[in-house]
Write a structure and sequence with these properties.
Elements (H helix, E strand, L loop, with lengths): L2 H22 L4 H5 L9 H23 L8 H5 L2 H5 L24 H21 L8 E4 L3 E4 H24 L11
Antiparallel strand pairs: 1-2
Length: 184
Amino acid sequence: MELHERQFVLDQLASSEARLLDLVDGLTSEQWSFREAPERWSIAENIEHLVAFEGFIAGMIASVIEGEAEPEKQASAEKKDPLVRGLAGARHIKFNAREVVRPVGRWREPEEMVAELRKARARTLAFAAETQANLREHFFPHIAFGDLDCYQWLMLLGQHAYRHALQIEEIKANPAYPVSGGMH
């Protein structure tokens, strides 16, 4: 990974984590569990999904970089960089999460969930800062985008967190969202 690529990913991962942590700081249990509609995720479910997704993707990256490089896929994958970078802003495009990363109540307490989010992101940041693997030559498929290289998956983790931060902001802006201390 080029130095500018590493810095971009580290910045995205750190800033998206900070934004999420700011959004969930001091929420009441009512606010954590509020749903805009029965089919929509609560803030707690968004955070649980993020932790599960990050662990799943980190595991996939670790597994894939142990395998054979596939440099012949680089040319088609590189064209997907803008698509990955634009993921957060493309909230009009809906994705169905893989079963393995859907919220199922893994953690009951908000503090526990936030601690798990911090741990998962710390592992990802450490990997992104230290890896010497050629991430651009190792691939696995996204449910909608097809093959992405492992660098794109690191970028996607930051964008995915931003995407859910936007979803949390939408939840908090809902007129029915429980108010705490007179503020949203």
